[in-house]
Amino acid sequence: MLDAIEMNPDGEIRASVIWLHGLGADGRDFVPLVPQLGLSGMGVRFVFPHAFARPVAINGGCRMRAWYDIRWADLRRDVDAPGILQSVCEVQELIERETALGIPANRILLAGFSQGGVIALHAGLTRPSPLAGILALSSYLALPAVLGREASEASHGTPIFMAHGSEDPVVPLALGEAARDYLITSGYVVDFHRYSMPHSVCAEEVFDIGAWVQARLGP
């Protein structure tokens, strides 16, 4: 099981958010956003897992926390499918742990930034029962063909929020838009937002995320 930072609400736990960080970060990366989401009093538990450290080729083989290896600036080239699928399995274990705590799948929301968004989309859409939602921020689909084969029929009921910066030099906006188009064509409901920002998160985006999560996890 992945190590993780866990934040429990006061009182009864009514829902869970599992939030995956990006390349080279760790679970602490998005903890500061929690108070800004407006979820106080809703009984939402947050889980921020730490990816395992591994060598990352594009960064000279340095070991860092990563959900999978990246070998080229062109993220569609020589994709690390085994690494992605292994991380998907690890995240599925986290989801199963939440359900074992008594939180139904439709009260669990999976979120991820960049690499974390890749894993969130693949893990969430291959579940046998739909989640409360999937947040994919500044992200893309690394294995669309594999997802097309492995996606569950029930996952078409999972709402998806995607956000991307128009000036993103790491994951180009075109990759995010291509993922959106693929998912919509495949029958998913995608709420896509574009912001004037690089590979990051902005205040307007955080506000929109909060409103979307409130709508998914509200009473």
Polypeptide structure, described:
The protein is an alpha/beta fold. It has one domain: Alpha/Beta hydrolase fold, catalytic domain (Rossmann fold), CATH 3.40.50.1820. Helices cover 30% and strands 21% of the residues. The protein has helices at 81-100, 115-125, 144-150, 173-185, 203-217; strands at residues 4-7, 15-20, 44-49, 53-56, 62-65, 108-113, 133-137, 160-165, 190-195. A seven-stranded mixed beta sheet has the order 1-3-2-6-7-8-9, with helices on both faces. Strand 4 and strand 5 (62-65) form a beta hairpin. Helix 1 (81-100) packs across helix 2. The longest helix is centred in the middle third of the chain and has 20 residues, at 81-100. The two termini are 30 Å apart. 40% of the residues are buried. The mean pLDDT is 97.
Essential attributes:
globular; seven-stranded mixed β-sheet; alpha/beta; Rossmann fold; 30% helix; 219 residues; two-stranded antiparallel ribbon
Mean pLDDT across all amino acids: 97
Helix content: 25-40%
Low-pLDDT windows of residues: none
CATH superfamily: Alpha/Beta hydrolase fold, catalytic domain
Widest sheet: strand ordering: 1-3-2-6-7-8-9
Number of helices: 5
Order of helices and strands: EEEEEHEHEHEHEH
What integer value in Å does the Rg equal? 16 Å
Helix/strand/pairing class, anyone? alpha/beta
| Terminal-residue CA separation | 30 Å
What amount of the residues lies in strands? 15-25%
Shape: globular
Q: How many structurally independent domains?
A: 1
CATH class: Alpha Beta
Largest sheet: 7 strands, mixed
CATH topology: Rossmann fold
Architecture (CATH level 2) name: 3-Layer(aba) Sandwich
Would you report the number of β strands? 9
